[in-house]
Design brief:
There is one protein chain. This protein is of the alpha+beta class. About 35% of the residues lie in helices and about 25% in strands. The strands form 3 sheets. The protein has a 6-stranded antiparallel β-sheet with strand order 8-9-11-10-12-13, sandwiched between helices. Strands 4, 5, 6 and 7 form a 4-stranded antiparallel β-sheet that branches. It has a 3-stranded antiparallel β-sheet with strand order 1-2-3. The longest helix has 21 residues.
């Protein structure tokens, strides 16, 4: 079986052959793509049919994963050629002129939170603002389905094309995010109850199990109904305040992923211990593409604001160490 670098070169040589019957295909472009938290090898399909203004991209890493499973290069290339053509066809179905209408665009801009240190190159080409060790960026929702949201990153160029400022993007996203993907707060106990109930566990057994967990030890998942980019719910302070009032304490917030955060009472917990747990889980079980931060945040229910509870050396999410890191625990600085 080929190593990835060899696989990549073979794909560059052979993939074009799978599009010979499609006369509208002008070329396949192989290029580096800065995705959230990582750089990927992309292949973009460019067409000349007079209609397509959106060029779909697939990723060679995904192709290689499929190749590792099957060991059959021809099957993999054929499958991904079909996927790329289907993506191009779907792109044609969208009313691009309507999608690029300024008013329609303004109604479909939402927030996404990403890690600042891990995404420096991406942040150079997108409008953003700082939030603790994170950055608020913007996404343009193309389609909303029952269990999914199709969206694309708002770049500096798209912002300029729409003749809109970052300040306007922030205002629009503040309104749209909760409207398109309403925030949702659920106790971990309730989520586990649902899982155990599906497995047939008697309710009496569940009651006995969860009644043993002290209130200050209970965790709460904060996300949205689509469970997509749900960490942005952290920007809606009212979610945190309501939970803090319910628990009668401040909150520590653990960045579970780009799609959710976990809140817990500050009573009986040490932030640096929680940060160590977050880092271990990130490195062990969370895909790099989904990681948000290795830090822990503090919500003060009286001041009604979020600050950083830790500032550990683990700034990056891929395990690459920072130069001359310094540990500072208990940072309390408000960042816009």
């Amino acid at each position: 079986m080929m190593k990835y670098e060899m696989f990549k070169e073979v794909v560059k040589e052979k993939f074009q052959e799978y599009f010979h019957d499609d006369k509208d295909v002008v070329k396949l472009e192989f290029h580096k793509v800065n995705k959230i938290n990582q750089e990927r090898d992309g292949v973009t399909l460019h067409r000349n049919d007079g209609e397509s203004r959106i060029a779909p991209t697939l990723y060679l890493q995904d192709m290689y994963t499929e190749y590792q499973k099957t060991g059959d290069l021809d099957i993999v290339l054929g499958k991904f050629a079909v996927r790329l053509q289907e993506a191009a066809f779907e792109a044609k179905q969208h009313n691009v002129e309507q999608m690029l209408d300024r008013d329609s665009f303004r109604d479909k801009v939402i927030f996404q939170l990403i890690n600042t240190e891990q995404n420096k190159e991406t942040l150079e080409r997108v409008p953003h603002r700082q939030f603790q060790d994170l950055s608020i960026i913007y996404r343009w929702v193309v389609d909303v389905e029952r269990n999914a949201v199709a969206s694309t990153l708002v770049t500096n160029k798209l912002m300029e094309d729409m003749k809109i400022s970052e300040e306007e993007l922030f205002t629009c996203a503040s309104i749209n995010t909760n409207k398109i993907m309403p925030s949702k707060v659920m106790s971990m106990n309730d989520l586990m109850r649902e899982m155990f109930a599906k497995d047939g566990m008697p309710e009496s057994v569940m009651d006995q199990m969860f009644d043993m967990i002290p209130a200050e030890q209970q965790m709460y998942v904060i996300s949205n109904e689509k469970q997509t980019f749900g960490a942005s719910a952290l920007l809606y302070e009212e979610n945190l305040h309501k939970l803090a009032e319910q628990l009668g304490s401040d909150l520590y917030i653990l960045p579970s992923s780009l799609h959710e955060v976990i809140a817990i009472s500050t009573n009986g917990h040490e932030p640096e211990m929680l940060a160590a747990m977050v880092n271990e889980i990130n490195m062990g079980t969370v895909d790099l593409a989904d990681r948000l931060s290795n830090q822990v945040y503090h919500y003060d229910k009286n001041l009604r604001k979020v600050t950083m509870a830790t500032d550990t050396p683990n700034k990056r999410l891929d395990g690459v160490a920072m130069n001359n890191p310094e540990v500072t625990v208990g940072v309390k600085e408000q960042v816009r």
